[in-house]
């Protein structure tokens, strides 16, 4: 039985979002977080450490090492990108800033690929709205552009995207490559040149960033759905599916040749862990997942029909693979990150079926949530700067002892402009009844952007103080300088991020623990097992000082010096 499409959309509802407004929103979301901050704990700092080592020529390009330690994620591509940027721009920009530029481009690629993916899916025959008896229904091209705007807004609105999309890790590389593959599978078989190049970049990029199993699953599913597309000719379907399948095989062969074919599957047996996963699914993809569930319900007849409606099945496949990876791999939030473009596309398909009451509920909830959040950020910032109100100022002083407030006129101006823009947007949305189909996602996307921008301007010095290794490393280097340390320093029990921070912030020549005797100096984690005293006997080593992290007293580094044998021969 053929069920009619549930989408009822008039031509008046598919006006495009002004391009200047969409571009400004994307810039306001993407730029903060890539400029003006230190590398943060832990993955961000560790990844930068390997990039720095590669750029300085201290480690092989195919198997980078940091003080003798290999990366904890497979795939060298992210480290290559950062190292190439450091080598190209290191003389013009600080190393950490230069390393972030390729990843800012990857975030832009993710946003653009999601827009174009939705554009092509919305152009498919099964996605078209109901034709009116006397005309006036949305035209296919206008409908596709409006839906693409909505999908991009839904992606930006996802709460879990903000921090992870601004870290220079393999997970952002995987996200951009997944979005490219998503776009390629959506655009085929209607177009071949650009989508084939995007598919190649996506598949090989996923392999080289440590996700060959995901590349194979997503590529094979995409190829099958391209083949099943009934709106295209047999020749176009065969060409598109064949191109995808060939690229999947080539990428799998590359993974095999480089020894990257591995999926670290873990089990989630503990009830507390399942509770944590449920909480992660709830907030990470909010507000896309409730809308995505609504899409699955309202379009259920198209999903289960034999017509193979690819505009629903393709994002559903990408979302299911990401959900499976979230349940079976760690870290779970990094795996779920790869499903956000698919969740956003599914969420956008809910908009043509939403009732006005549900749309109003979304607006009011979003307005209250992000307005209250913005007010809280401003109040705490004022309290830190002036001491009034006293309670928030006291709480900050307790959580970040020793923090000295800093005022930046530029950051203040940007934050104030963003807040005024939010107020104007709220007034626009409340004062006029806009018929545009994307109207329900304007406030969620703008609110998420406002919150992220305020954090990256007003709170950035405080966040750097709490999330950067710099204050603790400064104490370590001060103790080493006071003791007259020279040459290399061995690390014991240190994480990759701690080692990278000591090398970057402290300018120390960090080496593997096996070289401790030759160096004469050791920086050890006080919580390491077995304790450093069990490995370095007290009779041969003495503790010079210890350095705690200001915001976490239990995070303590020990500085030890080898006791020289002064007995005459």
Write the layout of secondary structure elements.
Blueprint: H1 19-30, H2 43-55, H3 77-89, H4 95-123, H5 140-157, H6 161-164, H7 170-187, H8 193-208, H9 212-227, H10 234-258, H11 271-284, H12 288-298, H13 300-304, H14 310-328, H15 332-337, H16 340-348, H17 356-386, H18 390-399, H19 409-431, H20 439-455, H21 460-467, H22 470-482, E1 488-492, H23 496-504, E2 509-511, H24 516-519, E3 521-525, H25 532-535, E4 541-549, E5 552-562
Helix pairs in contact: 2-3, 2-23, 3-4, 4-5, 4-7, 4-16, 5-16, 5-20, 7-8, 7-9, 8-9, 8-10, 9-10, 9-14, 12-16, 14-16, 17-18, 17-20, 19-20
Describe this structure in words.
With 569 residues, the protein is mainly alpha-helical. Helices cover 61% and strands 6% of the residues. It has three domains: 11-30 and 73-353, no CATH class; 356-467, no CATH class; 470-562. The protein has a five-stranded mixed β-sheet. Helix 23 links the parallel strand 1 (488-492) and strand 2 (509-511). The longest helix has 31 residues, at 356-386. It starts with 18 loop residues before the first helix and ends in a 7-residue tail after the last strand. Mean pLDDT is 90; it is low at 565-569.
Global mean pLDDT? 90
Q: Could you tell me how far the N terminus lies from the C terminus, measured between alpha carbons in angstroms? A: 98 Å
DSSP summary: helix tally: 25
Oligomer: single chain
Name the beta content range.
5-15%
Q: Which structural category fits the helices and strands?
A: mainly alpha
The residue ranges in which pLDDT falls below 50 over 5 or more consecutive positions are 565-569
Shape by Cα distribution: globular
How many domains make up the coordinates? 3
Helix content: 55-70%
By DSSP, the count of extended strands is 5
Over all CA atoms, what is the radius of gyration?
A: 26 Å
Mind describing the biggest β-sheet? 5 strands, mixed
The neighbouring-strand order within the major sheet is 2-1-3-5-4
